[in-house]
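TEACHING EXERCISE
Course module: macromolecular assemblies
Task: Read the component lines below, then compare them to the predicted structure of the full complex.
Student: A.B.
Group: 4
Components provided:
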Amino acid sequence: MKIGVVTFPGSLDDRDAQRAVRLAGLEAVALWHADPGLHGVDAVVLPGGFSYGDYLRAGAIASVSPVMATIKEQARGGLPVLGICNGFQVLCESHLLPGALTRNQGLRFINRDQRLRIAQKATAWTADLADEVTVPVKNGEGAYVADERTLDELEAQGRVIAYYAGGNPNGSLRGIAGISNAAGNVVGIMPHPEHAVEHLTGPGTDGLAFFTSVASGARV
Amino acid sequence: MTGPAVDTVEDAAASALAEQPFVELGLKEDEYERIREVLGRRPTQTELAMYSIMWSEHCSYKSSKVHLRQFGAIPKGDRMLVGMGENAGVVDVGEGLAVTFKVESHNHPSYVEPYQGAATGIGGIVRDILTMGARPVLVMDPLRFGDADHPDTARVLPGIVAGIGGYGNCLGLPNIGGEVVFDPSYQGNPLVNALCLGVLNKDRIQLSAARGVGNVVVLLGAKTGRDGIGGVSVLASATFDEGGPAKRPAVQVGDPFTEKLLIESCLEMYDADLIAGIQDLGGAGLTCALTETAAAGRSGMLAHLDRVPLREASMEPHEVLASESQERMLAIVEPRHLEAVLAIARKWGVLATAIGEVVEGDRLTVLWHGETVVDVPPASLADEGPVYDRARARPADLDELRTRQLPAYPDVTADLLLRMVASPNLCSRRWVVEQYDRVVLGDTVLAWPEDAGVVRLSEETGLGVALATDGNGRYTRLDPYAGAQLALAEAYRNVAVTGAIPIAVTNCLNFGSPEDPEVMWQFAEATRGLADACTALGTPVTGGNVSFYNSTAGAPINPTPVVGVLGLFDDVSRRTPMGFQEAGETLLLLGDTRDELGGSEWAWAEHRHLGGTPPQVDLAREKLLGEVLVSGSRDGMLSSAHDLSDGGLAQVLVESGLAKGVGARVVLPAGQTPFVQLFSESAGRALVSVPRSEELRFTEMCGARGLPCTRIGVTDGTSLDIQDVLEIELEQLRAAYEGTLPALFGPLAGGTAAAPAGPALLRPAADLETRQPDLG
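Instructor-supplied answer key:
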């Protein structure tokens, strides 16, 4: 199975996402923001970083890049897409997911190992996850916000895939760490599962399950 | 808009006697005369500005050069591929790879404008590493501030930390460690040092020399503006700037996104072998880059200054040459590769402009709209600046300081230990390091709170590096020769406890004014001590930086040589962490504990006392300790290892226990009093924990090699229990250790309590109060 990882100017965790894909036993394919072609990949990861410097709003310029035009179209047709951190911001700016990510409560960048309570496993990216996982969080604009009705809907429809556990690092409303679209093929998550794929370099290997999930989904 | 007519070389030749503001530009009479001698005429205004910058202390190292030569005499070993003199030294690490690393200061800008000063400090050191042909892979930042509770520290520290994070995080470079030290001598003059390390194939080292007549000089990156013209602030005086815009801030403004694109585009150009020479633009901007590349290549160079893309059209030639606008590089490119270079720049959205060429001869000629404003031998600026052997005098107060009686030693109580671990220099740095991305790139094996940062270079083999920086201004104040050696010894030990073999050194020498003989004596002693110690430990100096004029209201900072040690791992998976891993491990104290509390953290934290003599230096012992720690790691005998330094054994027992919440039962050996055993700062020591099954093997190894090794207890429970002295629950220690910086600088993000997240606790981010970092 081939997983595309998009590099925007200013993407930082793109090679890390590729490594996670490889460690999950899948093939990583580098995609370039200016190239609208997806090169036959079966799923796409939008990695973390500061695309275009995040100088307008985080993810805003990336959302109108040539590659995103294709991804938006194919995501509506069921292509599995995982947005991590800046990738989550891109998905919200692209209106593939509702809400927005704003400046952290406290206004400071925060990097720590974060526990997450997994709330929804019936998506393309979360099927193999344990009930609780620990992965690093690292963001400056990670506070998930949406209006009350949207938040109620997300929770009622089971579209919150993960809540922060053991403290909310950035002031996300209702402690939301990640959400999916209604079909479950598009998932955005603020913490970084690709940084929890090796005991040597991460808090554990809980994050690998995000990447193995998409493979099991494809086999179904 | 056009400025006043420029002063051309023709004008200069015709008006030899014109008055020139060389004194205002910081040049001495004899220096000015030498410039006239070199040129055979008076310099043009633009040339004068260039000489004043390049012959400044910052660029010419004119006061330090005679002392730094000692570093060149240290045996190089067989790993050094490029030594001092280039932008950063390069060290062979095997498997066809090399690393380049260097630490630099950005002290004064960070005091004036904390966020941008610190941010551009990161940007500058990263470009130094990029210039060598390497991909930057990590940063570290040794920081020093005034008293923790001083109001100005509350202004400076949050901005500096946010600036380092803001720039480094956006570049995608993990910040794997550093230092935070508080001392009133840094009030009004904080030290912001930044270290970067990069990796390259060892056959792809890039050098700065401009060679090959006809090769094109290409300026890459940001447009050039009036920011950062201030190293020589009088440039904005009426003489030079009539009719021009008002003075601009002397602190540069950073744009990490542009730097990220510059990094990726340069690396792609290196990979395609398109670059004949390259130099970053840092201090002294284009002046430095043009003269250094031409001088290094022993080439002539012609630059069309009016082709430089400007932010402000009204800039004068001397401003274009002096601007320290960030995120720029100067590349020397063969004409046949020019189109490929421009194409890569376009791909990454990086501005690239051909501004000149390498020419016959040995003159640097700069044209401005067809007129010659500069015609100089580049080596006269880059290499042949003045050199001074300045007057030195042993500080008049040193004898009094060194014989100052220490306060009476107290009995050890739980309260004393709690106060010590909560003291500003010993408490948790979580408030700072949580603002840094420590895991990006996915190769960080160890970072704070470990003694050294460890980063993997090869996923296939586990090849990796360890890095630590240390410096102790109090020790160096009391004895600059020993203080510099203790800084090296501590960084060396911090690297060795992880299991890495220390192989090379970089340094940032932060001192007061070189025109003060007492400061110059401190500098001479510290460099002599460091050079001697590097020779003894077999760790050559690969490069570094000198920062003088760190003083406020005439009072110099404590002399602060910050020493960075690079260690090498054949396989990072054998790294030794600093925390106790589980109950039942045997605790062994390695080395000798003496009654050494002069300049100690205890004397300072409890009594604001600075006096006596620093701990004794025994480099042979440091080397032996390092060898034992590396062997222990190789043979899988160690569960944990932690260096003993500031705060002594007590601090280490607390930190190693808190790491994973594993307590300890300790029985202090007979001999010294419990106070001395727990708080002395004797060098050459480490605390290790070993599984019971390895205890005999490890202690026999120590015995065979002659390293003192004392069994002092066992890991157990959830408290620190020191028999007949005290028992404290780890959670009580944790509260004290973690509480200090949040109490001073604001709560940690999201708190640390395990409170359930829920809507009732939360408000939209926009409503929240907060301590806005100083964004300028």
